[in-house]
Amino acid sequence: MAWALLVLAGVFEVGWAVALKASDGFTRLWPSVATAGFMTASVLLLGVSMRTIPLGTAYAVWTGIGAVGAVLCGIALFHEPLTAARMACVVLILAGIVGLKLFHPAPPVA
Q: What pLDDT, in 10s, does the model give residues 7-18?
């Protein structure tokens, strides 16, 4: 369950980044409100997931999901450049996220 919450927190991370761009520097009301809402949801879900997922793993996965999602949304929604170098970097970030999940330490036995 913690991993599902962490992934959802990452999705909200992408949401606030997109809403922040759409807010035009907090000059547009509804995108600004959405930014605050997505930020709040993202951090709350991150905090809950950290009850069982170690800090370093949770934070790295959360920011990785946000970074990959923001790059892809920037390309799809804001016509940012799609280059082989950028995609190679996205693949490296994804590899890091998958690696952190695969090599996640087992919780200590009580």
A: 999 999 999 999
